[in-house]
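The freezer alarm interrupted the setup, so I double-checked each line after restarting. Inputs confirmed:
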Amino acid sequence: MISTSLRRLLPLALALGALTSPAAHAGKTIDAIKQRGSVQCGVSSGVAGFSLPDSQGHWSGLDVDVCRAIAAAVLGDANKVAFVPLNSQQRFSALQSGEVDLLARNTSWTLTRDASLGLSFTGVTYYDGQGFLVPKKLKVTSAKQLKNAEICVQSGTTNEKNLADYFRNLNIKVKPVVFEGFEASFKAFFAGRCQAYTTDISGLAGIRNKEAPKPDDYVILPEVISKEPLSPAVRRGDDEWFAIVRWVPFALIEAEEYGITRANVDSLRASSKDPGIQRLLGTGEDSGKLLGLDRDWAYRAIKAGGNYGEIFSRNVGPDSVLKLPRGLNNLWNKGGILYAPPIR
Amino acid sequence: MDSPHAPAGAKLRKALRQWIPQILLLAAALGLLWWLGHNVLENMRARGIQAGFGFLKEPAGFEIGESLLDYTPSQAIWRAFLVGLLNTIRVALPAIVLATILGTLIGLGRLSQQSGLRAACGVLVESLRNIPLLLQLLLCYFVLTSLLPEASTAWHPLPGVMLSQSGLFLPAWRCEGACHWELPRLEGFGIEGGFALTPEYLAVLITLTLYAAVFIAEIVRGGIQSVSIGKINAARALGMKPTQILRYIVLPLALRAIVPALTNQYLNLTKNSSLAVAVGYPDIVSVANTSLNQSGRAFECIVIVMLIYLCLSLLTALLMNLYNTRVALKGSQ
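Predicted 3D structure, all chains:
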């Protein structure tokens, strides 16, 4: 109860922070991080595959690994991250007020958010889309059959708006049942309160495989009703920090393209003659200096959790409970749309 | 006491002593408000966050599950707020009425001559008022949704009444051209027509009612016990019957003790209805949360919700105070 009421009050507390704190001074997030000795990373309070603490409080997930890679690049230690769990309503206020240095919280990059909230998205780390989960026994094969259905959805997401848009366009009436908490929303669905559950497809796979009483009784419908490019975000006005948060994930994607993995990164660093690999791993030109980092920044980021492909398969791909296909999140030369600008 | 013959200088000094601190306090309060407001706007501007209440005129873009008004996502955000406000009132007002009736009965039950009834009411009061409301709400909601059948196999306890996980559906009196009773019916995956009370609404209504009722029961009990036995004995000596004693002696005296405390409970109940968001009832907080996220205007949305609750509470307090002056003993302080 106490933690719930405190959690409900956080946006207010953050807003009050804006009331009383003196005008923010822009820039120099990196100095604050170095002085503090850790990166404050805003994550979700528990979405399987993206950021989820285990019973020992150890966080794992794709967003978590991005934060760790950034901490490794900046501070030299992937464990120097303080994870700050935020709910959907709190996340932007927490970033705006300086509570966190970056937001890696399965957050969709949209124009409204990018242009009006005083923050900047750094680059897509996961291409998602919104879909529907339904019980198999309803024998529904398409979202277009959901006439008059009640649909459980979590509040404070882009999902509510997409849901309204999609069914308005089809001229089908549905009733949303909007829950504040993620837990309450899928529990109500599995109790049978709603005929369908909607969120991003990665989230659907998570609750189907981890939370459903019997995963095989539920099926994800084929329709993908929206584009949800999930991206980290930083406060606007600090270009140096923005560049670091943008380029660390690029380095992880580039590493996959070059075939650099967590296992072979040391041997490649010692022996590779490929100028691209040498540049990335700091044995060629010093790419780190331009970012305000040292020359081994990308080496440490890759060493921390592997390249993008390794992070993907460990958290959301074949080696995880979600078992999601690479799909759009494959490299551009392997059928996906991941394309990192060259590191040179 | 102020002497009418005090010299004019002393009067002036006394007026100054009275007024200067008050004026300074008011100035300080206004100054603080101005400083906070100015600082917010300044900080938001410096961080590149757009501010202002203009977003209320933008289309809302999201659907709301239940509404007393005609509402579509293409309507403005302020209308969505209005829908949320009406939903809050729609659950708080009946809960206040029901909690008052139920609370009075439980309170009388605790004073009953029958020990069984007294004990049952005591257990009810002690268990409900000592468990956090949020837990009761979640429990009530998940019990409701897991006990009830799915919409396709809804129960028909009475003709024209359907009870399922989609809610309680009653026949509704509809007038479009000709008036008729509209019965709920199964259509698609849900139930259409009639008058619907969703499980979310029922869970919030039941929990708020019970939670407030047990507090009201204690207030009623305390109020009645505060009437001195001497007055009751005097009424008996005058030959009044027990019902007359209750009607003319006990209740008028007890109400004086009850009404101010009751006002508190009504205020609490209305504010507690903000927990409705936990079980998916689209009250004002739920709508504000959604608007906050779609528009990113955290500060503005929270201010609006705070003002709405403030107005609801002040209105409740005003009405209760009017009632309180009516039941207070005339001429006494």
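Quick read of the result. Confidence is low (pLDDT under 50) at residues 1-6, 21-27 of chain A.
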